[in-house]
Structure formats: C-alpha cells, structure tokens
Amino acid sequence: MDKATGLERSGIAGAAAALLFGWLRRGRGRPTPDPEGRNPGTRFETRDTPPWLFPLLGGLAAGLIGMVVVSLLLIFPQAAKDENRAPTAPMPEPRLQTDPVADWQRYKAESMSRLAGYGWADREHGIAHIPIDEAMRRVAAHGIPDWPADARQEGRR
Length: 157
Known about the structure:
Distance between the termini: 101 Å
Oligomer: single chain
Shape: elongated
Mean pLDDT: 80
Helix content: 40-55%
Number of helices: 5
Low-confidence stretches: none
Order of helices and strands: HHHEEHH
Number of strands: 2
Structural class: mainly alpha
Radius of gyration: 51 Å
Largest sheet: 2 strands, antiparallel
Strand order of the largest sheet: 1-2
C-alpha cells in the first residue's frame, strides 16, 4: 500500500502516482520551529469537540443520577428507613405423628370395617356397599351383568 496516497498500487502505476504526489506536495514541508520553542504553523484542531462540552455532559449525568435518586426516595419513602422486616408472628410448628403404630392400626381397622360391613356409598342414588366376601360370592355365582359371554366361557376353562 502506498503510504503517501493510501492506495494500493504496484509497478509503474505505483511509481508514477508516488512521483506525481511528491511533485504536488513539493514546497509544502513542515515549518521549522523557532529557537524559542514556539511553532508558528501549529494551531488547534477546529473540528474537535469544544472543551466546555465534557464538563457540561458530566454535570448533566450527575444531575440525572441525582434526580433519579430523589424521585425514587419520593416514590418509595419506606425504602430509606432501616427497619427489621422479619415476620413478627412465629411460624407454627409442624404436626408430627406421636404414635405412628396406633395411627396405622386405626387406619387398618377403619378400612377392614368398610370392607367387611354394609353401608351407603351414595345414599342419594341408592348405591350401597356390601362385604367383600359376599360380593365375590355373588360375582362367582351370577357373573358380571355387562361382561361379554365369550369371556365367561373362557374364564371357566
């Protein structure tokens, strides 16, 4: 890449472009500084950002942050107070089985009394339950009413 023109050239065209560019810039070299250390040809870049812009932007950012903090304190006034927000009511203790063996025996007795006794399953619709032994005898003697006939024959074989 040609450093003078910033273009990538090679061969005769590159040499011609470099010679032409050098001939055009001839006599436009940098001025030499004076003996006191000043350079009269040096000026400030006029296209840069103005120096007052950075403090202005910093002040705007600080003002915006301050405005957000103040508005949050006005919206949520309780947030700045240092209070204990732990629950005041104690948690109830868990219910534990004090005698699991007795609980199991009671559950088993209730289940067996339902299996071995008579009672209503749905009183409104007239559905009752009978002891399990009697229900098995009735099914063995009479069968299940909605059961297919072929299945009854296969079950007896």
